[in-house]
Design brief:
Blueprint (H helix, E strand, L loop, with lengths): L6 H21 L2 H7 L4 H7 L3 H29 L4 H14 L1 H9 L9 H21 L5 H21 L3 H26 L4
Length: 196
C-alpha cells in the first residue's frame, strides 16, 4: 500500500510548481515558495535539501513516466505505422494530465539541472520520425527533412499545451494535427520518397 505524502511536503510541491511555472527556475524564490504555503524555510529543509531537490521532485516523476510512454508508443508505431493517431492521443492525454510540469520543463527550466529537457524531448521526437521514415522508405531520410517535420510537430504540441483553454479543445486540436500529420506522412512517402 503506498504511503501518504506528508501534508507539508504536498503543500511545498504545489507551491513550488506554481512558483516555477510563474517565475521559472532562475526567477523562483525559496522564500516565496515557503511563504505562499505558510511553511518556514527550516521546515522546508526537513523535506527537501535544496530548491533543486524540490524542482526535481516536481518534474522527475513526469520525466520517468514520459520516457516509459514514449518507448512504448515508438515501438508500437514501428510495428504498425498506422497507430500514430492513437499514440498522439495518448501522448496528448499524458501531456495534459501533467500540463504544468511540461510547461515548466519546456519553458521554465533554464538554470536548473533539467534545462536540457526541451532539447532531449525534441531529439527523441526527431529520432522517432527518422525511424518511421526509414521503415517506410527503406533507408535513412535526410536529416534536414526530419528536423523540419519534428520541429513543426514539437512546436505544435507546445502551442496546444499553452493555448488550449480546456481538455476537449486540446484533444480536438491534437486530433486535427494527428490526422494532418498522418496524411502528410503518407503523401510524402508516396510522392517524394526518392527525395527524402
Amino acid at each position: 500500500m503506498p504511503s501518504e505524502v506528508h501534508p507539508t511536503r504536498k503543500k511545498l510541491l504545489e507551491a513550488g510548481k506554481r512558483e516555477f511555472l510563474a517565475k521559472g527556475w532562475k526567477g523562483s524564490s525559496l522564500r516565496r515558495i515557503c511563504a505562499s504555503c505558510g511553511v518556514t524555510t527550516g521546515a522546508f529543509y526537513f523535506f527537501f535539501p535544496s530548491k533543486q531537490a524540490l524542482f526535481e521532485a516536481i518534474v522527475d516523476p513526469v520525466i520517468r513516466a514520459l520516457l516509459s510512454l514514449t518507448e512504448e508508443l515508438a515501438q508500437r508505431e514501428l510495428e504498425d505505422l498506422f497507430t500514430g493517431q492513437e499514440g498522439d492521443r495518448r501522448m496528448m492525454e499524458f501531456e495534459l494530465a501533467h500540463r504544468q510540469e511540461f510547461l515548466i520543463l519546456l519553458e521554465k527550466a533554464e538554470g536548473s539541472s533539467r534545462e536540457g529537457f526541451r532539447e532531449q524531448a525534441y531529439s527523441s521526437m526527431a529520432r522517432c520520425f527518422s525511424r518511421q521514415f526509414e521503415k517506410a522508405i527503406g533507408r535513412r531520410p535526410r536529416q534536414d527533412v526530419i528536423d523540419l517535420l519534428a520541429g513543426l510537430r514539437f512546436e505544435t504540441n507546445l502551442a496546444i499545451l499553452k493555448g488550449a483553454s480546456h481538455m476537449e479543445e486540446a484533444y480536438f486540436l491534437n486530433s486535427i494535427m494527428g490526422c494532418y500529420a498522418e496524411g502528410g506522412f503518407l503523401h510524402l512517402i508516396e510522392q517524394m520518397h526518392h527525395k527524402l
